[in-house]
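Two records follow; treat each independently.
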Amino acid sequence: MAIYVYYVRIMQRYLDPTNDVAFKKLFSNKARLIDLLNAILRLESGYRIMDLDYIPTEQMPLHIEGRRSIFDLKVKDEKGHWYIIEMQRKMGKDYLNRAQYYGCYSYVSQLKERLTHSDLLPVVVISIIGTKAFPKDIPCISYHHLKESTTKKQYLFSLSYVFIELSKFNNNQIKDNTDQWLHLLKYAPDEMEPPKEIKNKCVLSAYEDLEQFRWSAAEHDDYIRSRLAQEAEEGIIEAKYEEGLAKGKEEGLAKGKEEGLAKGKAEEKIKIAKEMLSNNEPIEKIIAYTQLSKEEIERLKSY
């Protein structure tokens, strides 16, 4: 019987919960997602989320560049109020502007469902970000609402934004339910077991579902494809794109941009191929994932 070997760091127990595939696997569980949302939004008694519906993708419009949110949700609080939550997990160039676009677009798109203006539900956009979006004096979780400039009171409730900057979360600050979820999102891939401070049963069950050996071969394949797409979008290719633009000032903008993108893609493919080789993956499988030639992969064996 063939043994499926997944190429992650040696001895890594938990997969990355911020990976789109892992996030959807974890929070397709309604009770767990409700607990996360109540923790992130820090909702007071009487306003806590008690129920939610996952909005089917065919009912929601595609966003910029065809990229979708992780979840589109219709939630109900303890007072019976319904509103829409859109969860995003990424950070790219001009993302703050794009987040506002997402919220506005989700709000006005409700009219396509034959609602009147009085029937429109408020929209909350939650963005989970691995890097820094705001200055250091802004806390790890920041809440953005429209308020009147003189009285500082809120009269417009239709759009609000929540940003979770995981880079600002400190490993030593597990004090409440919110901290337990933030710790999981940031540190789980580097741990061999949950910290003793974590008592929340929903968080502990999430740790269990992140154990890589509980995942099927098909789930692993989806996970790595998502990882490749994520790294290409947010990491190496972005850096090489900027490098290409700088080079383009001297050699021609179009040529520099093209070279930067090509270099980023090539380096990422080589990185993945080396990881797979170190785990004795078949060459045919490496070719399928990276589109490198057999000769290129054979050369990497000598390094």
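The next record belongs to a different protein.
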Amino acid sequence: MIPYLHFEDIMFGPITLHVWGVMVSFGIIIGLVLANYLIKKNNLNQTIIFDNVFYLFLGAFVGARLFHVFLYEPRYYLDHPADIIKIWQGGLSSIGGFFGAAIAFFILNRFKKWTFKILLPYLDIFALSLWLGWGIGRIGCFLTHLHPGALTNFFLGVKYPDGTRFDLGLIDSFVGFSIFAVFAVFFKRFFKKKNGFLAAYSAATYFFIRFFIDFLRVTPEEYLGGDRRFGFLTPAQWSILLAFLILFFWLIYKKIKRQTLKISNK
């Protein structure tokens, strides 16, 4: 079993740094360093993404925060509206971040008039970098124990004060590092040959795994810091189902469009 090590803040004289924020920031920095290295190594244009990375991160953070505020703790933030902007205290939804980044990307794409074909290799690089940063950032969730899970006898359970529990931050960190490791192995094989493969399949892999991981989460009634439910699923699980539903209808739309073009070209 893993001991319950709780680190909330790091003190540097009068300066207080929150461990969660430090680890998330460190994950972002390492991810960007790797992305920059891969872009240079593959002779791609750094300005296409790095000139706009601020807006992508802004969209991710806004989406992650709003998702958390409105779907996880609406009553608290209704009573404490000033705390909505205090993201350094925690309270970002990873799934909300995906949606926020996707919306920001779509808006940028409309303004910049990028072609999807040009962007695919960059998406693959940033996907690989994302999972490395994800694994690092989620360590912050583990050290602060933001996501306690169900009671367990599993050898990787964490000895919480009330018993051994799954720690969803630790599990999500492991998932992030694992996805990074697996797709890093396939990076050379598929990059430039099947652009978009790494981005699409790594995201789908995470969503699929995350859907089942969320069944290990506890409710706020079971444990302080637990996650609320809508029906029998968490907000993240409902969002994942929505994402797969959108993808399903998008694929049908693309297939119908291709068939229509074939018929019109005959």
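Discussion point: The first helix runs from residue 19 to 41. How would you locate this feature using only the token line?
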